[in-house]
Design goal:
Strand content: 15-25%
Number of helices: 3
Distance between the termini: 34 Å
Number of domains: 1
Structural class: alpha+beta
Number of strands: 3
Helix content: 40-55%
Mean pLDDT: 88
Radius of gyration: 12 Å
Order of helices and strands: HEEHHE
Strand order of the largest sheet: 2-1-3
C-alpha cells in the first residue's frame, strides 16, 4: 500500500530518530518531545515539516505515535 506524502514525512522523521509524539485532544493537534531526537531528525523536522502550512503539518503529526493526556 502506498503512503500519503504526509505519512511518508512522518515515517522518514521517525526513521531518522525523531522523538516527537502526537498530542491530539478534542480538535487540537500538537506535538510533545519526550525523548532525545537525533540531530538528523531535528534538521529533517525543521526543513521538511515545520515549514508546512498548519493543516499539512497537523496531518504529519497525526501519523506520529500518540500520547494520551490525563
Amino acid at each position: 500500500m502506498e503512503q500519503t506524502p504526509t505519512a511518508k514525512l512522518a515515517a522518514d522523521y521517525l526513521r531518522l530518530g525523531g522523538g516527537r509524539l502526537a498530542e491530539i485532544d478534542d480538535n487540537k493537534v500538537d506535538t510533545r518531545q519526550w525523548k532525545h531526537e537525533t540531530p538528523e531528525a531535528e534538521a529533517f523536522w525543521n526543513e521538511n515539516i515545520a515549514s508546512l502550512d498548519a493543516a499539512r503539518r497537523n496531518e504529519v503529526i497525526t501519523h506520529l505515535p500518540t500520547i494520551n493526556r490525563v
